[in-house]
Design a protein that fits this description.
- The chain has 9 helices and 11 strands.
- The chain has 286 residues and is an alpha+beta fold.
- The chain folds into 2 domains: 79 residues, Alpha-Beta Plaits (2-Layer Sandwich); 188 residues, Sulfite Reductase Hemoprotein, domain 1, CATH 3.30.413.
- A 5-stranded mixed beta sheet has the order 5-6-7-10-11.
- The chain starts with a helix and ends with a helix.
Length: 286
């Protein structure tokens, strides 16, 4: 049986004690949800040698090998280091970052995986008042659930319409899942209240009648999901793609300045007021 002190020590290294209290699942870390084929081969080798020949996927796009014996843990760490594999991802710190495949996805408005890699390089594993999760998605489909992360990024394209170029073909209407567009008298009618800024109308328009008025990302703060659920609040504007990391720098700076130990961003916002938290972050950005 693994004692409590050993359990805590190993958890910080990404070795999570299983319910039999004798084995670990070791968590190997992806880069923006991606593993190279060589990394996958090396993970397989460790699973075959020290586990039971299979690997599990986590909800945050990492991989875990279960059934690692306590006496094998040191050898697993040494072998993982030699093979160039990273393990970890728990504790009061920035947890593994998640990005959807927006970089290559048909619907993506931003380079989700590059943003994720930049943020991971800067923040992953760094200490925070409490655990802190970041998620990046490319569009309103929100596959990686950006707004239930402590910090979430969602790609947006806000459209505008040049009716002089509109020929009433209806391609944009067909592409609009929200039914925010309709053709009347061979011209597009746009219902802004129904639009979710997914950018599909801009992508499909062949006459430059639908144009990108703004393209970038909406950023949410204070989301969480689990024992306590809270939908994150938007900072209230669209940031250019190249601004996203800078804005998150300011969010993290503010969180670390005023967050109490054991307090997630949602807890800080509940304590000081979400409007004040967002206003103070925006002041740092400006």
């Amino acid at each position: 049986m693994v004692n409590a002190k050993r359990q805590k020590e190993m958890k910080g290294l990404g070795f999570l004690l299983q319910n039999d209290k004798e084995h670990y699942a070791v968590r190997f870390l992806s880069k923006a949800g991606n593993f190279t084929t060589q990394e996958l081969n090396n993970i397989n080798k460790i699973a075959e040698k020290y586990g039971r020949g299979y690997v599990g996927l986590t909800t945050r796009l990492q991989m875990e090998i279960p059934w690692i014996k306590d006496e094998d843990a040191k050898n697993v760490m040494e072998e993982a280091k030699r093979l160039g594999l990273r393990h970890g991802g728990t504790g009061q710190k920035i947890r593994p970052l998640v990005a959807c495949k927006g970089t290559v996805c048909l619907h993506g408005n931003i380079d989700t995986q590059e943003i994720c890699r930049q943020l991971e390089s800067k923040y992953f594993g760094t200490d925070t008042p409490h655990k802190c999760k970041m998620g990046i998605v490319g569009c309103a489909n929100n596959c990686a659930k950006a707004n239930i992360n402590d910090i979430g990024v969602m790609g947006r394209t806000i459209p505008e319409f040049n009716l002089d170029n509109c020929i009433g073909c209806g391609l944009c209407v067909q592409g609009c899942r929200q039914k925010a567009l309709e053709v009347i008298d061979k011209k597009i009618i746009y219902n802004k209240d129904l639009c979710v800024s997914c950018g599909e109308c801009v992508k499909v328009c062949r006459t430059n009648a639908a144009l990108a008025k703004e393209k970038g990302a909406e950023i949410f703060v204070g989301g969480r999901f689990g024992r306590g659920i809270r939908i994150g609040d938007s900072l209230g504007k669209i940031f250019k793609e190249e601004e996203v990391v800078f804005v998150i720098d300011k969010i993290m700076e503010h969180y670390r300045e005023i967050g109490n130990k054991g307090e997630r961003i949602s807890g800080v916002m509940d304590r000081v007021g979400k409007e004040k938290f967002i206003d103070d972050v925006l002041k740092k950005i400006d």
